[in-house]
Amino acid sequence: MLGSQSPPPEMMGKPIHEEVAQVWEQTLQKGLDTEEIKDLLQKYPPIANCKLVQAPKLNAEVKRAITQQHSERDERLAHVQAQLGAAMGAVGTALTFCLQEEGGTTSQLIELLGDAGKLLASVHFAESQSRRILASAGINKTFKSTLTGTPVDGWLFGDNLSERMKTTRALEKTSEELKIPKAKINTGKTQYNLNSKSLPRQYSQSRGRHNQSRSKRQPKTGREDQTRRNPYYRPRTSRTEPPRRKH
Fold first, then answer.
1. Does 242 reside within a domain?
2. Distance of CA 179 to CAs 27, 65, 203, Å?
3. Cβ atoms of 44 and 93 closer than 8 Å
4. Whose C-alpha in 117, 124, 127, 244 is 20 to 30 A from the C-alpha of 75?
5. Where is region (Disordered) located (predicted)?
6. d(Cα 203, Cα 209) in Å, to the nearest integer?
7. CB 152 within 8 A of CB 58
């Protein structure tokens, strides 16, 4: 009863046609050739009445501000988005055929193709958000809300980015002017540079006077000091006294 429980079985969908499964698995493992991707992109161009399936272009203002590495990474992600847009074009074309036909199986195909299209659109949106995060990593934080606060359109950070940045800069300047300036507090203490090799003038002068007073208090050494401590000490003189006569 309290023993370990086996994990629940993984939910799997119904099997698809074997040939379709083999083609998809091979593509998932090895990808598609560059020429084949190019042909598919030409076969399924962007939808005329749904232009947002195209990969949004990176705004020129942002492209000049980011590094070359970030720019190249954005180009790779944009290429992936272009393939998603082509896939949505293929699904949309098939879905349009189903909507134009009449039959018992049409409604089921419409549902399946509609779900596939919504999932592709969701991945397309997620790629746009990833591109935004990577591109805005080195951007001034003041403008981040301006960059990400607009929905994606034909441009990654929305249209009229320069005008929106000017508005943000003007609002930032106005808000700074409205703020009450902080009063400077004078502590009255003199700040000394601890890394300086020389001492402040006032400190060096007081230290010099202190050393002079100490030198005055120091005891004298040498003969002058010996005359004070030894009562029998007699200094030598340069004059020689004549010998005393014996009586």
1. no
2. 60, 30, 41
3. yes
4. 117
5. 183-247
6. 10
7. no
